[in-house]
């Protein structure tokens, strides 16, 4: 997981404040393939599907939006209604124990920075996971994390043995551009991202379209991730596209995101 190092590639050796302004500066200029626009297309597609061949995803009572671009394959739905999502958010606030101290900091070119959000890792016993230069053993699943995991498994048909929890206190907290392409991930497995609390923009940027002199121009894809939503990032999305959650100064409320992964046991 190179979510801190990639910031260097974007703007050279950036300080923390510079990272933030870079992210904010990029937003107005983005020729975003907005979910709003995409969703219009997807909704039309879903309606057509239901008229002509029925969309099996709608049979579970969920309406899926299929987001596709070159090498990007994602599915989005509202998994929990407002009331249940609110209850789960409160439960997560009680149960999740976030990293502190050295685990909440990251070293970039020899300098230590506070991670601009809170993080925690939970999962099956015996798993280890590396991110931001650290190798971690996840804490055992809590009841609320198991409940969300099991619901995600039911609707996706996939199993998950690890979850990374990110908590953004408000719109100043963020995550820089990175790919979830760690070697621990089971090949071919999707990453399922569940969001609670404040709606935040999630930005996909194609790997050829990054930096000051990109190899080519590919429109970014912007998805507002709503309270109670599920975004499934299917392969090969994380091979070709970086993602980030940029700062949004106008957002005053907290958000919690859970990314469920299927990771391989450590090599003996
Ligand atoms: O908070 C989010 O939606 C993004 C989290 C993320 O990018 C990650 O866990 O890799």
Task: Spell out the blueprint of helices and strands.
Elements: H1 5-11, H2 16-29, E1 33-34, H3 35-52, E2 65-69, E3 72-78, H4 82-95, E4 105-108, E5 111-114, E6 118-123, E7 129-131, E8 134-136, H5 143-156, E9 162-168, E10 175-178, E11 191-197, E12 200-206, E13 221-225, E14 229-234, H6 237-240, E15 241-245, E16 255-261
Parallel strand pairs: 1-13
Antiparallel strand pairs: 2-3, 3-14, 4-5, 6-9, 7-8, 9-16, 10-15, 11-14, 11-16, 12-13, 12-15
2-oxoglutaric acid is lined by residues 164, 166, 175, 180, 193, 202, 225, 243, 245, 257, 259.
How would you characterize the overall build of this protein?
There is one protein chain. The protein is α+β, with helices and mostly antiparallel strands. It has one domain (30-261): Alpha-ketoglutarate-dependent dioxygenase AlkB-like (Jelly Rolls). 26% of the residues lie in helices and 31% in strands. The chain is built from 6 helices and 16 strands. The chain has helices spanning 5-11, 16-29, 35-52, 82-95, 143-156, 237-240, and strands spanning 33-34, 65-69, 72-78, 105-108, 111-114, 118-123, 129-131, 134-136, 162-168, 175-178, 191-197, 200-206, 221-225, 229-234, 241-245, 255-261. It has a 7-stranded antiparallel sheet. A 5-stranded mixed sheet has the order 1-13-12-15-10. Strand 4 and strand 5 form a beta hairpin. Helix 4 crosses helix 5. The two termini are 22 Å apart. Mean pLDDT is 81; it is low at 1-54. It binds 2-oxoglutaric acid. 2-oxoglutaric acid binds next to strand 9, strand 15 and strand 16. 2-oxoglutaric acid is lined by residues 164, 166, 175, 180, 193, 202, 225, 243, 245, 257, 259.
């Amino acid at each position: 997981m190179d979510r801190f190092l990639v910031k260097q590639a974007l703007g050279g050796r950036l300080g923390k404040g510079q990272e933030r302004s870079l992210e904010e500066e990029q937003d107005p200029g983005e020729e975003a393939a907005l979910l709003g626009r995409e969703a219009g297309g997807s909704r039309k597609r879903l309606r057509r599907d239901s008229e002509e061949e029925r969309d099996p995803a709608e049979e579970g009572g969920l309406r899926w939006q299929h987001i596709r671009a070159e090498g990007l394959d994602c599915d989005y739905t509202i998994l929990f209604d407002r009331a249940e999502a609110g209850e789960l958010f409160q439960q997560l606030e009680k149960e999740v124990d976030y990293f502190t101290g050295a685990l909440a900091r990251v070293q970039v070119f020899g300098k230590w920075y506070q991670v601009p959000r809170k993080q925690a890792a939970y999962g099956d016993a015996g798993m280890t996971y590396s991110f931001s230069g650290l190798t971690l053993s996840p804490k055992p699943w809590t009841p609320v994390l198991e409940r969300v995991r099991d619901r995600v498994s039911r609707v996706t048909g996939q199993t998950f043995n690890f979850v990374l929890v990110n908590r953004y206190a408000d719109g100043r907290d963020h995550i820089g551009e990175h790919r979830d392409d760690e070697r621990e991930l089971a090949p071919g497995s999707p990453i399922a991202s569940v969001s609670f609390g404040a709606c935040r923009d999630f930005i996909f940027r194609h790997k050829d379209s990054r930096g000051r002199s990109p190899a080519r121009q590919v429109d970014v894809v912007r998805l507002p991730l709503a309270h109670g939503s599920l975004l499934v990032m299917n392969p090969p999305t994380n091979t070709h596209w970086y993602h980030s959650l940029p700062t949004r100064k106008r957002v005053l409320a907290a958000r919690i995101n859970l990314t469920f992964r299927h990771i391989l046991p450590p090599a003996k």
